[in-house]
Amino acid sequence: MWEQIRSNQWRSVVLAIAMGLVLIGVGYALGLYFADNGIIGVIFAVVLWVIMNLVALFQGDNILLSLSGARKIGPGDHPRLYNIVEEMQIAAGLEKMPDVYIIDDQALNAFAVGRDKNKAAVAVTAGLLARLNRDELQGVIAHEMAHIKNRDVLLMAVTSVMLGTIVILSWYASRMMIFGGSGGSRRDSGGGGGGQAIIMLIALALVILAPIFAQLIYFAISRKREYLADASGALFTRYPEGLASALEKIASSTQPLKSANQATAPMYIMNPFRQKGKPAADLSSTHPPISERIRILRSMGGASLTDYNKAYSQVHRGGGSILGASALAAAPKAPIKHTPNKSGFVQDDDANELQRARETSDVLWKMNKYTTINCKCGTRLRVPPDFKGTSVKCPHCGTANSVA
Amino acid sequence: MIGVWIALGIIVVLILAIVALYNGLVRLRNEVKNAWAQIDVQLKRRYDLIPNLVETVKGYAKHERETFEAVTNARTIAQKMSDAGAQARSKAEGELSSALMRLLAVAEAYPDLKANQNFLALQEELTSTENKISFARQFYNDAVLRYNNQTQMFPSSIIAGMFGFKSGEFFEVTESVQREAPKVSFS
Fold this sequence. Notes:
Chain A is α+β, with helices and mostly antiparallel strands. Chain A is built from 13 helices and 8 strands.
């Protein structure tokens, strides 16, 4: 079934190629304007793109993770999160366990990085850990795991670098064209003014319009990959309701994510720049409207890719399809599970929110190297890392607790 | 002369096709093997968790001897079956699952136990291990389906027959055992 998803990526690849053509067009226009030779411009643009790609390839993940202020955790720091990631790694059939990160932010969001499937990472915010129950968290992690498995991270990295290159090139070029007067090495003896002027105007128009085109294409790719990640996420968990309910909670939260920026937006499960009360989805959005994503997930009759596709075209009034016919023909049946986390084992419903919030704050304190001591009277004492004494007196009951 | 070249070309194309089909089958068979190994890892992990869990529950619920014995016995049987085929094994594992569910249902009746940090940690580990087993099973069954499709569909079925690729066995958990509601007596 993975082969199908991969073979289905050609749609995204076509869009990526369209973006590449825009890049080449900008380069050509630039070359024509400044050097009278389009090819030189194209070479310049492509070389710039390759250099930026190399930077992104070797440092991208680290840059992204440190920009968002994410901290790496181990299995003992937050067993539930770590376990869920491990469960989804197994369900997705990934060979290597991704690194797990927590972002100290009360907003509800999550993202995945990793161009290489075997060197990936998922990051979730502290707010998400506290608010979502086990089923919902599993749904979110499944969505992120799907981004890794479907190679979206790679695709989005390559295209976002392409977008960046186009934006940078046209920004400088349009300013040079408008304010710099005549282009540097433009032939003075060149042909008559008329033809020359028209070419210049076309070049200028192209340079100004290019970033807009590129951005629209980029958003289109991003939205497509979001749908696909929802579909694969439902397939991994065999429980679309988990993700649907998580999206609902995320949508109703008003906390903005402090550490996101435009470049990293597509990697989050939810557009971090969404504005309250505005249906955040049109051509200029990285994510499909959340209500629509929920509606699709909730109207799935089974958990397979075919079921998702059916639900997708239902919600779109019979129009459109997210997967190609060849992918659907080979997709195996997958019934929905009714107890994704055997309910007899762990009670983790919304009533446990307080406990989850405590758990999460424990991890955050621990990440800041504070020691947590549970006093007999039920009070939690946080001991800073530079604490010198050997015991702490509980402010509630007066018991002296020794600092291990 | 041209006839010879054409015949030679056909033979080369045929050999290439056979190699490609053969390699595809080997790849799928390895996938099935890897998926099976993953189930194995998780089942073993469950065997390791059980004694710890039983000891913790025993400390609070001394009178539930029958439940403890059922779990311990089911574990011993499941461990013995670990070299058996998928079908025999899945039956034993299903019984272990339901014995464990009964044990955890018993724990519900002891509030002190439910507040025990060690028990809560074990409960999370067990839940996750159960989930991992079920996801590993899901992935394994998908892999078997893909592999079996290849071994049975023309033209790779010919290659499968020639080189002895046997169909894989699904790992199904008997639904009746899984769905059975835990019986608890509070007398």
